[in-house]
Amino acid sequence: MTKSMATICIHGKKERKNVDNTGAVSFPIFQSATFVHPEFGKSTGFDYSRLQNPTREELERIVADLENGIDALAFSSGMSAIHALIDTLSPGDHIIATDDLYGGSTRLLMNIANKNGIKITFVATDKIENIKKELRENTKLIFLETPTNPMMQVTDIKSVVELAHKHNCIVAVDNTFLTPYFQRPLDLGADVVIHSGTKYLAGHNDTLAGFLVTNCKKCSEKFRYIIKTTGACLAPFDSWLVLRGIKTLHIRMEQHQKNAVEIVKWLNNQKAITNVYYPGLENNSALEISKKTKFRFRSYDFFPR
Ligand SMILES: Cc1ncc(COP(=O)(O)O)c(C=O)c1O
């Protein structure tokens, strides 16, 4: 039986790992840095919380299931997740990135990745020709944010993936704004999904969190090596907060969309306002791409302007 998004938000796709035998409905917070070994040379599967922690693993399971990935890694913030992604590259490698990325991501690429010998080209990724023009031998990553924060630029993920894979280049999509409730980039062929879990996934303004989700075994191995080495993993209590937040993701996203629609309607009727940036507006180039990208917009979202 295929499970609904609402069910996956709460239970994931399969049974959770039985780690405490109490039947606790709310997953326990394993607030422990270290784990006792039953005997010399034997492990329970949990040794040290930088490597494994049951609460974080439960959260990672739910997020991987929501994005249809084979693995998800929970980081201490969205920025640390993006940093780990960039850490998989080497000096001399080239990234093509959306030119309207969240400011922190631009800062990371311009001031840290660049300093470490990684070359970056920013283009408006809503036009595939812009990406085609900039592809080079050493282009290893196309980093998309769609829709972008703040200008709501929308990229056709599927077309970018087709182009990138012909050039042996991976595609990572920052899916913070839509969440897997509205868009699942891995289903469109992307290799990696990025989240600032701080936003809609956690949903209560009480913790920072970040995720990398992937369908690519090699990527997952690289990310796991980086997280265990740099230690930017999400703490047990914060993992639990995000787990709890995600249980209502489906309800909150519907309401967020209704709220956005009301605001757009109001803004649309103000004479003093010349531009409203919302991908659901008719005559907006983002709308056609959004339909292709399978945004799950409802019909009431499309307004004449
Ligand atoms: C689209 C997007 N990606 C990444 C980030 C960074 O995430 P964090 O603040 O959790 O480090 C943000 C933060 O606002 C964001 O909006």
Describe the structure.
By secondary structure, the chain is α/β, with parallel strands linked by helices. It has 2 domains: 5-246, Type I PLP-dependent aspartate aminotransferase-like (Major domain) (Aspartate Aminotransferase, domain 2), CATH 3.40.640.10; 250-296, no CATH class. It is 37% helix and 12% strand. It contains 11 helices and 7 strands. A 7-stranded mixed sheet has the order 1-7-6-5-4-2-3, with helices on both faces. Helix 6 (157-166) links the parallel strand 4 and strand 5 (170-174). The N and C termini lie far apart (42 Å). The model has no long low-confidence stretch (mean pLDDT 93). Residues 77-79, 102, 104-105, 145, 149, 174, 176, 196, 198, 208, 210 line the site of pyridoxal-5'-phosphate. Pyridoxal-5'-phosphate binds at residues 77-79, 102, 104-105, 145, 149, 174, 176, 196, 198, 208, 210.
